[in-house]
Description:
There is one protein chain. The protein is α+β, with helices and mostly antiparallel strands. The protein is rod-shaped, with a radius of gyration of 41 Å. It has two domains: about 1-260; about 335-525, 2-Layer Sandwich (Alpha-Beta Plaits), CATH 3.30.70. The protein has 17 helices and nine strands. Helix 2 (about 25-55) runs antiparallel to helix 4. A hairpin with a 6-residue loop joins strand 7 (about 490-500) and strand 8 (about 505-510). Helix content is about 65%, strand content about 15%. The strands form two sheets. Strands 1, 2, 3, 4, 5 and 6 form a six-stranded mixed β-sheet that branches. The chain has a three-stranded antiparallel β-sheet with strand order 8-7-9.
Amino acid sequence: MGLARDLRGWCVGLVRPEDNEQPGRSMWRAGRLVVTAVIVATNLAGVAAVILITFLVVPLPHGVSVAHVRLINTLVAAGYVAVTVPAGILAGTRPLLRLRDWLQAERPATPAEQLLVLRAPLRLFVIQVIPWLGAATLFGFINGWRSWPAGFEVGITVALTGLITGSYTYLIAERLFRAAAARALAQGAPDRLAVPGVAVRAVLAWGMSTGLPVASLVTIGILELAGSLKATPSRLALTMVTMGGAGLVVGLVVVTLAAKATGDPVNSVRRALAQVAAGRLSVQVPVYDGTQVGQLQAGFNQMMQGLAERERIREALGTYVDAVVAEHILAEGTSLAGEEVEVTIMFVDIRDFTGFAERAPAPVVVATINQLFEQVVPVIHSHGGHVDKFVGDGLLAVFGAPRRQPGHADAALAAALEIEQSVRSGQLRVGIGLNSGPVVAGNVGGAGRLEFTVIGDAVNVAARVEAATRQTGDTILLAQHTADLLSNQVTLIPRPDVLLKGKAGAAVLYAPLTTIPQPAELWDF
């Protein structure tokens, strides 16, 4: 039951490396069993292919005893396979024992362990091809003792079959090691290619699917033209049909494996991009390829980490800076060059804040102010303005910068009226002053610390207009320039002869009718 469960978990990692949560010990047990089975199966299939091709397909040179060749080659092959297959299994899996220690430790892989995982398929390829090339030399020598064409033919057949077998193992092992590679590269991929790149993989697929089968046919043709085979036309036809058909089947499988080895990780990135387009910035793809495609996977993850970090910065910036200003800074940068624009300035201040602060504990004071601003700030945003800064128990809001707003005076007055209504039921009262005029909007600061704000006489006048609400008893007061810019039919009551601090002479201010509880002289705009 335990092994069956390990194999099921390992199969999940084979299909979806990103979903593999199998313990390292279980992954090692299942993976070692599967890799061993693949090595044995591919090599036995290769041995069977050599026997069939040599005995039944490839024409032997004229005068060579077929029975003698079969007897000698069968005996030698049996002994060679009995020795080399266990030796190949041991040589192929023994270097991977370091992976066992890493997987069972359940820790991040070291750079050396990452390379060991990524290069495991290539190591298996080399370990398998060496015995096959040794067998090609041995069988070529044995069969060439009496006839060099026979030895050459058998040796080439064994060598080509061995290369194809090793290539099969390499391409299959790349898929088998995906879950382990994804776990090893979870903390980051190597900066350099760990294995031959995509181009080498494509050339390998061409060689195994086309080059070697065609080379075997070319070899038979050369021997026939040299007069060494003297095969009958029917035998040559059988050889061509069999070798050509085998080449088509082998080529299809090899090319499919090579294409999926490149296409699967690319598809994982494509699917992840679709999730990003849907708004998921936390998506990551498993990195399990040692070629340029693996670097593409790792680069995608790094890009997404950068985007996620940018989004966190945007959110943090929006917490301490108004969202409109944050977008302006991210889009335009932090240039110190300001621009002159016409805006409407709103000052909001809490009435009798000093007395309230004396009576209430400090935490209550802060909580109450925050509760008030929770009501005020959304109203300002809903009318197209933004909060420039919080000043103690008040705030400064701007309508018309950095985002242009043609009806900024009307929007500011509408926001002021809504703020008055929303805070009426609370325990705090506010005063609101509005003034319109030209200001310089831009980034102000130094020594690496900047703030987007507005500067100009219009800002100072707005502060004085808000302070005048204490003299007139109104909640909202407008300066003359703001009243002149109003396009809506708003009933205003003039407040003449109001002295503004720092200004020569008296000014005429206006209060909207809705804020005046008693009858008074009305002006219509």
